[in-house]
What does this fold into?
Amino acid sequence: MNNEQTAWERVANMLRARSLWMLYYCTGCGAIELPPTMTARFDMERFGIGPMATPRQADILLVTGYLSTKTLRRVIYSYEQMQAPKYIVGFGSCTINGGIYYDSYATINRLDLYVPVDLYLAGCMPRPEAIVNGFKNLMDKIDQGEATGWKDYEANYEWYRKNQIDALGEVYIHDEFHE
Amino acid sequence: MIITILSAIALLILAFAYTVTLEGIARKIEARIHRRCGPPFWQNFIDIFKSLTKHSISHGFIFDFGVLMALGGTIATVLFIPAGNLVVFPGLDNVFVIIYLLAIGLLGMAMSAVGSGNPNASIGIGRALTQMLGYELPFMIVLLGVFFHFRTSSLSELAVLQNSGGTYNVLIMPIGAVVGFVSLMGMLGKKPFDTFIAPAEIASGPLVEYSGKYLGLLMTQHAFGTFIEIGLFVNLFLGGGKTIWEFLLKFFLVYFLAVIISSIMPRFRVEQAVKFYWKWPLILSFIQVVIVVFIMGRRV
It folds into this structure.
């Protein structure tokens, strides 16, 4: 990985690390750990992390929990709508190895075959402490210019695309508002 | 000429820096009301500058042009707001000029958001314009009472007259000031009148398709818009300020009041908001105008 940063990139990465807007894609039970993380007890906003309503404005795509073949398609569509630099956080064991339903015909076991994951939060479920710790790690990675999943996705698009099509059959990336 | 340009630049920098700082402080205040720690007060600067570093996607010419029109119209309007003794165009800051110029910014925003083609944006714009019908009516009626009393509609002249008279409009026309404040909450889009933003309901409404640099520009525009709306209220009802510091202090107090009211309120639906505005504030504004016209009369 190339860690050479220009002065402009250093400033930009410093800003990006301190203001993270997340779009949480609540596919499974993981979302239940987010309200305590965001509200008074653990208060994620003090790090500049906050929820955002739409993929266009968001920086982080938080995939919380199980991915079925149906939801993976929507995750890919949401990710394609986000604007670079964008980061994906895989939340919980189920995005790493499929969790306890790993042998189901409809479960996606490894998220990072289909989209580039910058950070995994292991656990079933990860506690709010683990989430805050994970986000601090992500902030450090962004600050040092190491969170480059979106560049990998552009560079290795063919490979990701092949995996997506193998799993889903067909993936239409299109702009439904201007057709 | 040179002085005009310099004071214009000074006013723009002041408006941006002060309003964005206050927005950050507002997040802190809201967090303290929730018993949280809250982000640092410079968080909004980071948010805006980070947005400007991101990549962004366009949805066509109207989308791009509307953003520039919104930002340009709003910046042009800021120049007409007298901030204490910092008045860029003395004698030209008529309230009607400000209200017309402000509409350019709003219409640019509306055009751009509808140009994105997203249905949530259209719903948000529809709600924003509907709510505008609601709050403008009582606000304008109160303004007519103020103009009648002072025989002028120049904003800086109104501020000077209040200061030389020794009392502020908030004391001699308290009902009108309350109506003005309720209308101000609607203009700012603070709860309970934030129907057109409504992140959990229509995915932040007009802003739904803006990404990266567009969002950064619109956040800047929003900061300038806040400065105009609160500046209008401060000059109309609190006598502006003899110095710029007095103006900024009053500005902070009004904004603080709006923030603490907003942080404990739920959200109206849009028809409830309009129904509310056309009921109580409208009745109160008529009462205020009747008092001004038939009892107080014109000011010498």
